[in-house]
Amino acid sequence: MTKRTRFMAFILLAVFALSIGCASTSKQEGTGEYIDDSVITTKVKAMIFNDDTLKSSEINVETYKGVVQLSGFVSSQANIDRAVVVAAQVDGVKSVKQNMQLK
């Protein structure tokens, strides 16, 4: 093999290895999914913060593969219901899991 052929084979192998390393599995997000989930989490937090009826300090938001999980202690069932509705309206949210509890 020539040096150029070896070099091209090395580059192709490196690209293949990197693409496999960034792929997602059932238990681990890929790089793109992690960034998407971070954006979704930020948007949900912003929507909750901008809602006059909700206290953003009471509600924790986590996202994994488009599924938003809300947790924390809130003052009423109406706030729980409102937070779920607000989170579900964000683009990219596949579903919302509600783990909030009443104070």
Features:
alpha+beta, Histidine-containing Protein, Chain: A, 3-stranded mixed β-sheet, 3 helices, 103 residues, rod-shaped, single chain
Report what the structure shows.
By secondary structure, the chain is of the alpha+beta class. The chain has a single domain, classed as Histidine-containing Protein, Chain: A, CATH 3.30.1340.30. Helix content is 50%, strand content 21%. It has 3 helices and 3 strands. The chain has helices at 3-21, 31-50, 77-88, and strands at residues 59-64, 67-74, 95-102. It has a 3-stranded mixed sheet. Strand 2, helix 3 (77-88) and strand 3 (95-102) form a beta-alpha-beta unit. The longest helix is centred in the middle third of the chain and has 20 residues, at 31-50. The relative contact order is 0.14. The mean pLDDT is 84.
Output the number of helix runs.
Answer: 3
Order of helices and strands: HHEEHE
Query: What is the overall shape?
Result: rod-shaped
CATH class, named Alpha Beta
In short:
The chain has 103 residues and is α+β, with helices and mostly antiparallel strands.
Detail the topology: elements first, then pairings.
Blueprint (H helix, E strand, L loop, with lengths): L2 H19 L9 H20 L8 E6 L2 E8 L2 H12 L6 E8 L1
